[in-house]
Amino acid sequence: MKFIAFLTAFYSLIPFSNAAIVTIEGFRNTKGFAAVSVFHEREQRAFPGDAEKAIKTLYVPVPKNSKLEFTLDNMPAGKYAVAILHDEDGNKKLNTVLGYPREGFGFSNNPTILVGAPAFSKCAVELTEGATVKIKMKYFY
Question: What is the pTM of this model?
Fold first, then answer.
C-alpha cells in the first residue's frame, strides 16, 4: 500500500503535456494497418526502429479517406518524435528492396529523406496543449 502511495506521489510531480493532435495523410491504399510509434526524448537512440522502446505504439486500420487522426494525451512533458509505417502486408516489419522501403513511412516534421532514417532531432516536436503534428506519408515504390 505504501508503494502505491509512493508511485502516486512520484507521478504527481512529473509534468504532463496536454492533448496534442496527430494527423497523418497520404496513405496510398487501405491495405494492412498503420503502425505508429511515439518516442520520448529519453529514448531517442531507439528512434525510429525500436518500437519496443517507444512510449506509445498504436496499430490502427488505415481509414478509407487516407487520413488518420488521433490524440496524444497524458504524455510526460518533453520532446517527442513520431514514426509511422504503412504495413501493407501486416507483418509488423518494414519491407525493403536494396535498402529502400517498399512500404510507406512518415515522420513528425516531415524531414527530407535521402538515405537512411532521420535523426530524432530532425523529427522532434514539443507536445503542448493544442499542438498539431502533421505527417505526410512517403512511398518510394
Answer: 0.84
